[in-house]
Amino acid sequence: MTIGTCQVCKKEKDRPLSVDKCYSCLKEEHIDAVKEEIANGETTSTYLEDCVFCPYCGDELNNIPMDDNHAELFMEGEYEWECGACEKVFLVEVHVTFSYSTERKD
Ligand SMILES: [Zn+2]
Ligand SMILES: [Zn+2]
Prior knowledge:
two-stranded antiparallel sheet, 16% helix, 6 strands, alpha+beta, flat, binds zinc ion, two-stranded antiparallel ribbon
């Protein structure tokens, strides 16, 4: 990890050594790439992504709010989800991972 100027947003940020873009620009680029693949029919499903992509129109649900309307998206399982953009219903499989940190108490 290194600090450098991102070539996309021109901000000084942490970025991977080998790339000249920051993590948030890389993420946006990835989201755009997935959307494009869905839009042109190259892909009809997404796997282990950070956000929920509609497999019909590519609309993405990013930074999912932790409220009652989105409660299922925080629980392990498979759910039917209606796309907010094209209103088609698709399946979302939610993977929940846990990690642990510890420290001495005294
Ligand atoms: Zn950037
Ligand atoms: Zn959709």
